[in-house]
Every structure is written in structure tokens, then in C-alpha cells.
Amino acid sequence: QQPVQSPQAVILREGEDAVINCSSSKALYSVHWYRQKHGEAPVFLMILLKGGEQKGHEKISASFNEKKQQSSLYLTASQLSYSGTYFCGTEINNAGNMLTFGGGTRLMVKP
Amino acid sequence: NAGVTQTPKFQVLKTGQSMTLQCAQDMNHEYMSWYRQDPGMGLRLIHYSVGAGITDQGEVPNGYNVSRSTTEDFPLRLLSAAPSQTSVYFCASRKSRVAKNIQYFGAGTRLSVL
What we know:
The structure holds two protein chains of two kinds. Chain A is mostly beta strands. Chain A has strands at residues 4-6, 9-13, 18-23, 30-36, 43-49, 55-57, 60-65, 70-75, 84-91, 100-101, 105-110.
């Protein structure tokens, strides 16, 4: 079953912050975050594993709350280059199945 | 190191035609998969493979066939194209069944079925 992302879309001014959420009805083993620019392939941002780890990537960080079956992606001091669609991909176990992706969150950063 | 390579980049088919989308990876990854992405939607898994000779169905397998004769290649066949198969197709690969391993995507094939 696909994870649910929220919000579906967000518009920011440069320098503003945003949070994107990814929720699952099933217990999660890992959450993978990707960013996709228009007309391009999804590009990997970070992985969060079961255990509540928080990862960071420049001014983008994420958390994973396994009890709530939820992950959040935090974008701070947004830049124009952050524009794109963000996807979370999830695994419910370590059996090695391919990722199941949410519907995406479209982020637009304006000057 | 080319990563995941998909061909062609664009294709237009007529209803009922068949074709094969090619995917190759040079990272010696065990896992390969095909996703489709429709406008404004996420990525839906069509078929995947956990190694040469082993394939399985994903969420939306109808109308597509796959085979994996080598570790490097994972072609996707459309048996009789339908307008509902108009989409962008992404091939992906992943090293093995370890959660921390990254899944890499090819550049995509944009398919229109008229």
C-alpha cells in the first residue's frame, strides 16, 4: 500500500522553511526521500532506517518516527534549487522488495 | 560509470503495436525494477527482479512482460500497446536486499500510445 504524502503542493519564498510528511498504514522499516525536477529522473536525497534516526543533507534534514509510521522532510532556508517534486519511498521489511512511493509533494520556491 | 541506462528516451506507438523498453545497469546490482509515472502522480511499480532468472509482479503488471537473462539487463515488453499505457517509464536498480542501499533511477522513457 502506498504511503500518503502531505501537503500535495507548497509554494515558498526563498529563505522560508517547509515540512513534507510521509505516512504509512503499515509499520515501516525504512524511508527513502527523493527529489525530481521536471522532466528528469528522481534523485536520491537520504535514507532513514528503523530506529528513529535523523539524517541531514546540507539544509535538508529528515526524521523517522517508527511508532507513528511517519517520516518528515525538513527544508530550511529554502533556495530556488529546491524546487521540484519530493517523493518518499518506503519499505515495510528488510526483505529487499523495491520501494513503494507516495504521490509526491510539489514544491515551488519563488525569488 | 554510466549507472542505469534506458533506451529509447521517447517513443510513439499506435494502439496494438508491441515494443521493448531497454534498461541496463553497470553497477552489478542484483535488484532491478520498472516503474511508471503518470502526470501528477507518484511512481507505481510494474515488475521487478531480484536476480538473473527471477522476476515478480508489482502493483500494475497487466499488459507488460519482463525477463532477466543477465544481471545487467532488464527489458520491459509491451505486448499490445493501449492508450492507457501512455506514461513515463523509469527503470531502477539497487545493490541488494539491504535497507540502507540506495535505489538509482534511469533517465526515463516517455511513451505515447495513439
